[in-house]
Design brief:
Blueprint (H helix, E strand, L loop, with lengths): L7 H8 L7 H4 L2 H19 L3 H23 L2 H18 L10 H20 L7 H10 L7 H14 L4 H12 L4 H8 L3 H19 L8
Length: 219
């Protein structure tokens, strides 16, 4: 008997490390407002040179930044180096940071995106990782409690991601790897929420076609 197949969106949610991308939408509005206000205060303190606030921002966002960089570069060593550069750039840029209707994470994502692009231009040859090695590294981030089937799904999804157009790939990484909300993703990519929904639908359809295609693991 064939085993039941989960939807591509369900596989993405389960296979990529991180909480559901809609977690913030399920929060009580008051809790969400309090969290946003707390981060705003933290950012303002960091802008004034409060080292403990800078450290708190680092702890709060490091995992997200590292996961994004890792999924873009495929190398743990490069991901660590570039993530460090992202936070150095954050510290240098904080005095000039201004609230412009975008969440702080969107500003930080823009820094990460630039640092990844800079790294690829400077070190593409020296630090390139074999695709198969990179995909197995993606599977290894699942941890020992993850079953063999789920690890295989992570590898398959990571490989399929590389075949998507850049913008669609970014949407999937932001939504399912970094667990950003729809609004945060829209702010990070400077697009409307409606445009992000359409890109996400196309990306999931693209993943479905790749994974269920003649050579896909779910064919």
């Amino acid at each position: 008997m064939d085993r039941p197949r989960r939807s591509i969106a369900g596989l993405a949610k389960g296979a990529f490390r991180g909480a559901s991308p809609d977690t913030t939408q399920m929060l009580d509005q008051r809790v969400a407002r309090d969290a946003a206000e707390q981060e705003r205060r933290l950012v303002e303190q960091a802008r004034q040179g409060d080292e403990s606030a800078v450290e708190a921002l680092y702890r709060q966002h490091y995992d997200r930044v590292y996961r994004y960089v890792f999924y873009r570069l495929g190398s743990p060593t490069a991901a660590e180096d570039v993530s460090s550069q992202v936070f150095l750039a954050m510290v240098r840029g904080l005095p000039r940071f201004e609230w412009q209707g975008r969440p702080f994470v969107a500003w930080l994502y823009a820094i990460a995106q630039k640092q990844v692009a800079y790294h690829l231009r400077r070190h593409a040859r020296a630090d390139s990782v074999d695709l198969n090695e990179a995909l197995h590294l993606v599977a290894d981030t699942a941890g020992p409690e993850t079953g063999a089937e789920e690890r295989e799904q992570r590898v398959a999804l990571a490989q399929a991601l590389r075949q998507l157009p850049d913008t669609q790939r970014e949407v999937i990484i932001l939504r399912y790897v970094l667990s950003l909300s729809l609004a945060e993703t829209a702010a990070a990519l400077e697009r409307s929420e409606g445009a992000i929904k359409q890109l996400q639908l196309r990306a999931l359809a693209g993943l479905r076609g790749i994974l269920a295609g003649p050579t896909g693991p779910f064919a």
